[in-house]
Every structure is written in structure tokens, then in C-alpha cells.
Design goal:
Radius of gyration: 33 Å
CATH class of the largest domain: Mainly Alpha
CATH topology of the largest domain: Transferase(Phosphotransferase), domain 1
Number of helices: 11
Strand content: 15-25%
Number of strands: 19
Order of helices and strands: EEEEHEEEHHEEEEHHHHHHHEEEEEEEEH
Helix content: 25-40%
Largest sheet: 8 strands, antiparallel
CATH architecture of the largest domain: Orthogonal Bundle
């Protein structure tokens, strides 16, 4: 559709000109009053939840004048089923300026821009959280750099609702709490301000992605390179804005006062040296705080992963129990033995010698960190135990490790069955045998060690455990018939599976 020269009738009648920009939910056109007295832009917005918030905020900026450096709304209404928002026509965006200057600004000019933005943040702090501050949304209007585009903003007093499009973020400027889906505050805007400040002063953004997951990791877990282009005071301020912990970032009012003093040199060499020491000390303290926060987040993520492992594990012992109850009701079954460490232990006497044979599965426990090539979250053991008098060479049966891990594709977790063998297999009572990850890393290296893989890692499909159940019940039955023996060859033929090396 050609919207050029179309009339839009709101409180006043506007003539819509050429398209300036088009985004996900909106299109922006040149506009002017019929008599040409006011040059403006009209933004046509789809009626998505929360879209009218920009009208309310812009109208507040226009009517009360209490929000300096916020682009006002001078007319609004509906046009052809869309919200129409009329705003003054700006000279350029901050992104336009950065492109025009190839990203390089003099420090004095960068400070003036940052002071304008900080002044706007002071005005809206008690009322609105912008949540999408970036150079594209900062416009030069009447000689001042002003904040615009409050499309995903939220009123400061409101709890987040779906209407705020919470997951809508700009990955280059999004604060850690936005990535973590935590309540956004004015400190969220301060973080984006810090990214913009770094970009203006260094000529590039602090983090470079390039993909969304990389940006998430960088914003949440990494510190940017030191801002060598700025004075100590300015560098400290930008680093504080980029703190991972929102609570320790400066307030908007503090931004204004510190920006006003940022270029003042310390009055003496002694004070200059003290300022340098203070900058280094603060940077080290922030690094320590971030490391502690990362450890806490990792601990929390690990706990959630372990809960997932427990949920997925429950089908494994249950399928074995169901089969035992159906086909071997005379088998004695004890659940929760060992103070709850065992999911179950099934035991029965062999025929004809009446020797005790046991089949058991332990409950999963958290796996300790190891040096292997993939991640292991939880571990358990499935075991078949024969009497000491059985067979030759002192073989007592087989134990296999069950690991909740990602040995095939990084981040793709499941329960896997793993067994190990010693270089001198005849010395082991159990063959294959189980090991915790911390004692088995050598088996996953490209070297011959005293411990080698004897089985797996083979994934256990929760939706079809028939092969696993048939195999272990078969071994149990063979043990009861005194017909189960040590494997002739280790590793057992065709049982060792490939795994990723990094």
C-alpha cells in the first residue's frame, strides 16, 4: 500500500509522507500539519498488548514537562486499525551520528550526549523503566539528546505482566537481569546506559556476541576490556554501570553528578595516585562479587539440573521392578535400603546351590566436577552381585554406572549406561565395574590407562527401556540358574560407544 500523502485525522489532521523506518510492530513516516506549520513523524503501531504505553508516557512528557529529554507525543489516536503516535521530527538518532563519525567521538562530545541521556533517566526513574535503551532510541531534538520508543517499557510501580513483552530485548544492550527474566528496574536502564557510554568512548561496544547465546553469556558472566580511552573517574563510572549486580550500579542522579565532574583532574599527583588505586581496588572488588554471583547461579542451575535428572531417572528402577513383580513374584524386593541410598535391591537364592544373587539400583546423587570431556550432573549404579563361591577367578558380577550427562551433543542431557574395565581384568571382582566420574577420566582420554571403557556410554531411552530391562533381568535370571560368567573379552564386543571429545 502506498501511504504517501495520506491524511491522518487525530486531534488534528496530519499529512503522512514517506516511510522512514519499519520495525517488528511499527512503521514510522514523515508527517506534517496540513498548513505545514509543524514537521513531525507519525508512528503506526500494531495493537499488541502494551502498545498504548508509549502514548501515555509521551503524553506525560508533553503535558507536565517534568521529564526532560524525553521525546513527547504531540498527537495520538487510531488510524486504519492501528495506533497512531505523532512526535516531533528529530534531526538524527545517536546511531546515525555514530555511523556518520565511524563510531569515534571526542570525549567532550560523548560526555554531553551522556549527560543528556542521564538527565532523561533521572526524570523517568520514579515512573518508568525503559528496558530498551540503545542509540537507535536516542534522538537529537531541539539541541538535546532525548529518549524515545517506550514500546516495551514498564511503569516502575508495576509488576511485570505479559503486556510488557518481557522477553523483547536488544541483545547488545540487555542487562543480566533481562537475560535471567528477573524484575527490571531503573538500574536496568543504567546498565544499557553503561553499554552506550562504553560504545561512545571506546568506539565499539563492550561485548561482541555474535549470537544471542554468546551475548547472554558475556552480559551475565564476563567483564569488558578496560576502558583505556577515558579518564579514571569516567572509566570507573562506566564500569559501575556495567556491574552484573543491579543493586551496585549507580542511580540516574549519581550519573548526572558524576558525569559533571568526570573530566575534572585530581588537584595533585598524590590524589591522582589515590584515584588510580581506588579504580583498581573497585575493579577487583567487582570481579570478586561477580565471581561469587556466578558461583551462586551455577549452584542454582546445577540444583535444577539434578532435579531434572531425578525426574527422568525414576522410570529406570520402576521398569525393572515392574518386570520382577510380573515374572518373578517370589523374588524378595527391598526398597530404600541403605538409609534411602538404594532405589531397590532384589534378592533370591540360586538353584541348585542356594547362593544369594542380588540385583540392585541406587538412587542418583550429585556428581562431583571432573576433568572428562563432557558434563556429568548425576550418577547412580545398577549392579548384579553373585556369591563369592560362584565361578572362577573370584568374579562377583557386574556393576554399571548410570550417568546423567551430555556425551554426544553439548547441552543435550540424558541417562547413559557406562561400564569400566581394568587393564588387568582378571584382578577385578566385578567386570565391568562402576566408577564415579572423578575416578574415571583416564578412560575417556586418547591414551592407554589402567582403567578403560568396557561399556557405553549408551543412552537409556525413557520411552523404551525394554533392551536395558531385558538385559539386566536376563543376567539376574542366569545368575539364579548359576549360568552367568565373567565376560570372555573386555571391552565386550560392540558395547563401547563413541562420545564427544570436547
Amino acid at each position: 500500500m502506498n501511504d504517501s500523502s495520506k491524511k491522518i485525522r487525530l486531534a488534528r489532521t496530519w499529512t503522512m509522507g514517506k516511510l522512514i523506518n519499519r520495525g517488528g510492530f511499527a512503521s514510522v513516516y514523515e508527517a506534517s500539519l496540513e498548513d505545514g506549520s509543524i514537521r513531525a513523524v507519525v508512528k503506526l503501531v500494531e495493537k499488541v498488548p502494551g502498545a498504548d504505553r508509549e502514548i501515555l508516557i509521551g503524553s506525560e512528557a508533553q503535558s507536565t514537562r517534568s521529564w526532560p529529554n524525553v521525546v513527547p507525543v504531540i498527537d495520538s489516536g487510531e488510524h486504519e486499525g492501528k495506533l497512531a503516535i505523532v512526535m516531533p521530527r528529530a534531526n538524527m538518532s545517536l546511531r546515525d551520528l555514530l555511523i556518520d563519525r565511524s563510531g569515534i567521538l571526542a570525549t567532550d562530545e560523548a560526555l554531553r550526549i551522556l549527560l543528556d541521556i542521564a538527565t532523561a533517566l533521572v526524570g523517568i526513574e520514579e515512573s518508568v523503566v525503559h528496558r530498551d535503551l540503545k542509540p537507535e532510541n536516542i534522538l537529537l531534538l531541539n539541541g538535546y539528546w532525548c529518549i524515545a520508543d517506550f514500546g516495551i517499557s514498564r511503569y516502575a510501580s508495576s509488576s511485570t505482566s505479559p503486556a510488557t513483552r518481557k522477553r523483547s530485548l536488544t541483545k547488545e544492550y540487555a542487562a543480566p537481569e533481562q537475560w535471567q527474566m528477573i524484575h527490571a528496574t531503573s538500574k536496568t536502564d543504567v546498565y544499557a546506559f553503561g553499554v552506550i557510554a562504553y560504545e561512545l568512548l571506546a568506539g565499539s561496544r563492550p561485548f561482541h556476541g555474535p549470537d544471542e547465546e554468546s551475548y547472554r553469556d558475556q552480559h551475565c558472566n564476563h567483564h569488558p576490556p578496560v576502558l583505556a580511552q577515558a579518564s579514571v573517574r569516567l572509566r570507573d563510572l562506566v564500569e559501575e554501570c556495567l556491574d552484573k549486580n543491579a543493586a551496585t550500579r549507580p542511580t540516574p542522579a549519581s550519573l548526572v553528578s558524576r558525569l559533571q565532574r568526570a573530566q575534572e583532574a585530581p588537584p595533585s599527583p598524590a590524589l591522582s595516585a589515590l584515584a588510580d588505586w581506588n579504580s583498581t581496588a573497585l575493579r577487583e572488588r567487582r570481579a570478586e562479587i561477580t565471581a561469587a554471583q556466578q558461583a551462586e547461579l551455577m549452584k542454582r542451575d546445577r540444583a535444577e539440573a539434578f532435579k531434572t535428572a531425578e525426574r527422568r531417572f525414576s522410570a529406570i528402577p520402576q521398569e525393572l521392578l515392574n518386570t520382577l513383580e510380573t515374572w518373578g513374584p517370589a523374588v524378595a524386593v527391598e526398597k530404600g535400603a541403605g538409609h534411602g541410598t538404594q532405589a531397590f535391591t532384589a534378592s533370591a537364592y540360586s538353584i541348585p546351590n542356594k547362593n544369594m544373587v542380588k540385583l540392585g539400583v541406587s538412587n542418583p546423587v550429585t556428581a562431583d566436577p571432573w576433568s572428562g570431556p563432557f558434563d556429568v550432573v548425576a550418577e547412580a549404579v545398577v549392579s548384579l552381585t553373585l556369591p563369592a563361591t560362584h565361578g572362577k577367578q573370584g568374579w562377583r558380577g557386574r556393576n554399571h554406572s548410570l550417568w546423567f550427562c551430555d556425551p554426544v551433543e553439548k547441552g543435550s542431557y540424558g541417562w547413559y549406561e557406562v561400564g569400566f574395565t581394568a587393564l588387568f581384568a582378571a584382578q577385578s571382582e566385578f567386570e565391568p565395574f562402576s566408577l564415579p566420574p572423578t575416578e574415571s577420566a583416564i578412560a575417556f582420554q586418547n591414551a592407554i590407562g589402567t582403567t578403560q571403557l568396557g561399556w557405553g556410554p549408551g543412552e537409556l531411552d525413557r520411552s523404551d527401556l525394554s533392551e536395558f530391562v531385558e538385559r539386566w533381568i536376563g543376567w539376574f535370571a542366569s545368575g539364579l540358574q548359576e549360568a552367568l560368567y565373567r565376560p570372555h573379552v573386555m571391552p565386550e564386543s560392540g558395547k563401547v560407544r563413541s562420545f564427544r571429545r570436547t
